[in-house]
Amino acid sequence: MKNFGVTTVLTLGMAACTSPQSTCEQAIVSYVQTDKHGTLTDLKFEILSLETSERTVADSIELHKADDEKELAKQIESEESKLEFWKQLIADNPQSRDVERYNENIDGINRRIDSLKQTTPEEVLRYTGLAPDLVIGIIAKLWYSYVMPETGARKERTDTFILSADGKEVFGQEPSAD
Predict the structure, then answer these.
(1) Can you tell me whether residue 164 is helix, strand or coil?
(2) Phi, psi of 136, rounded to the nearest 5 degrees
(3) Among 176, 144, 142, 160, which residue's Cα sits nearest to residue 55?
(4) Under DSSP, is residue 45 helix (H, G, I), strand (E, B) or coil?
């Protein structure tokens, strides 16, 4: 089975996954039973439970912002640490002939900190101009069983799949705890 380790979730479409043999189910069944070479293997796949939810532009922006804010905070903290180093160097050596160079370093660090604080993450920029309530994908949490072709043993798993808004295409699968 494929596992893309997708961490960035796009969106979901509840309406696409409502009928018993829905578009989402068909897409997931095909995805799970097809290997990376395009070979379909009948795994006697059975859906035990399927929960879907929609992901909108607003949801995606919030997810990206949360991740990006953590990364920016780390970068700003690193720059502030450098800033304190140079300030301490001046405080410890006020008569040094290098004080001017130290101050130039401090100015550069301050500019980087200001720039980081003004940064809009690229992932968020891709949604510019889109309606916040636009559904861009479907997240499907699926509990299913299948038969291992080599041994004939029946297995059960729970996985989360990321699908297109119409439910026809599986973009990836989040890593399973199984």
Answers:
(1) coil
(2) -115, -5
(3) 160
(4) coil
Judged against a pLDDT cut of 70, whether residue 10 lies above it is answered with no
Instruction: Please tell me whether the overall predicted TM-score, pTM, comes out greater than 0.85 for this model.
Output: no
Query: If pLDDT is split at 50, 70 and 90, which confidence band does 160 have?
Result: very high
Tell me phi and psi for residue 172, to 5 degrees.
175, -175
Instruction: Region of 167 please: left (phi>0), alpha (psi -120 to 50) or beta.
Output: left
Q: Radius of gyration (Cα) for the chain, nearest Å?
A: 25
Considering only CA atoms, which of 61, 43, 55 is closest in space to residue 17? 55
Could you give the CA distance from residue 117 to residue 97 in angstroms, rounded to a whole number? 32
| Identity of the amino acid at 64 | H
Work out the widest C-alpha separation in the chain, in whole angstroms: 80
